[in-house]
Write a structure and sequence with these properties.
By secondary structure, this protein is α+β, with helices and mostly antiparallel strands. Helix content is 29%, strand content 16%. The chain has two domains: 1-40, N-terminal domain of TfIIb; 61-93. The chain has a three-stranded antiparallel β-sheet with strand order 1-2-3, with no helix packed on it. A hairpin with a 5-residue loop joins strand 2 (20-25) and strand 3 (31-33).
Length: 93
């Protein structure tokens, strides 16, 4: 339910004070207690400078020597796999 200020006619806005919700006039400062809480919400806005933001930047260096060694190992494993498969197909053990 919308309520208006009896003094100046402005819209009364819900505001939280001491863990209670009150209706407050931003023009003249009039305030009154809320009789029924249903339909009213109090939202607190956090200023932009109080918000924290975290940026994670990660640089991954590539060691060419290590990459070449890994590629050699993979080639060797592949060759062993192929010879094992050929032996199984021909029936050798």
């Amino acid at each position: 339910m919308v309520e208006f200020c009896p003094k100046c006619g402005s819209l009364l806005v819900p505001k939280k004070e001491h863990n209670k919700v009150i209706l407050f006039c931003s023009r003249c400062g009039y305030s009154k207690k809320v009789k029924e809480l249903s339909g009213y919400k109090s939202i607190e806005k956090i200023p932009e400078k109080k918000k924290s933001r975290i940026a994670v930047v990660e640089k991954k260096s590539i060691d060419k020597k290590k990459v070449e060694e890994e590629q050699e190992l993979l080639k060797e494993y592949y060759e062993v796999l192929l010879t094992t498969m050929e032996q199984e197909e021909t029936g050798e053990t």
